Amino acid sequence: MISPGDVDYDRHGGGYATQRRTDPRIEARVHAALGDARTVLNVGAGAGSYEPTDRYVVPVEPSAAMRAQRPGGVAPAVNAAAQDLPFDDDSFDAAMAMVTVHQWSDVQRGLRELRRVSRGPVVVLTFDGDALDQLWLAQYTPELVAADRRRFPDISLVRALIGTRVQVEAVPIPLDCVDGFTEAFYARPEMFLDPAVRRAQSVWGFISDADETRAVDHLRRDLDSGSWDQRHGHLRTQPEFVGALRLLTGHP
């Protein structure tokens, strides 16, 4: 059996429905990229973030813990993995994958599957590994950036596999972003002191406990002393941050 991904979400997926909510500004970009698609496959659907509610959506999610966090009133998720989708060719008007491709055990096969089952756009929200160090957090935990760079596929690879015409868009992250990935807290450093926030960011599981403790303690000291604000305090009122978040839309 092929492993569905690099994180055991049955053990580590608790809290995602609370911490990783749909941000409406990012959602608007995703839904615009889907165009006029009426049937949408959402692969690596998790707890349902960014799924349209005005279209027919079939979610795919291999983790029982994540499937259990899906809210009432939405479609139940199919238990399957990206690299082996149980659907015929061109079954859907569009396919989407939201901040999930880096967790797939076979990224190339999974992306080819997305393209195979969609007769229209393939929409992928992901991060550019080459841009991850733009966030100040890299100064506190370079190990975190190194770990994520090993996980995220090159944008060029994603681009090559999801279509013949592909748009790549840098997505601005709003100051009060409610989707709790790392860059969402560019202006709210105190959030990284909360273990629940870090547990909903899978990359922390790829560094040692000692490195995590050292980074968090360093940040706490700098916040208490005012050093963080001396260097980065302007971010607290900066309305948007353009970092590593990318939206790719591939057309057949």
Provide an overview of this structure:
The longest helix is centred in the C-terminal third of the chain and has 17 residues, at 209-225. The two termini are 30 Å apart. This protein has 252 residues and is α/β, with parallel strands linked by helices. It has a single domain, classed as Rossmann fold. The protein has eleven helices and eight strands. 33% of the residues lie in helices and 15% in strands.
Set out the fold topology.
Blueprint: H1 9-12, H2 16-19, H3 24-33, E1 39-43, E2 56-60, H4 64-68, E3 94-98, H5 107-117, E4 122-127, H6 137-140, H7 142-151, H8 155-161, E5 165-170, E6 173-174, H9 195-199, H10 209-225, H11 227-232, E7 240-241, E8 245-251
Parallel strand pairs: 1-2, 1-3, 3-4
Antiparallel strand pairs: 4-8, 5-8, 6-7
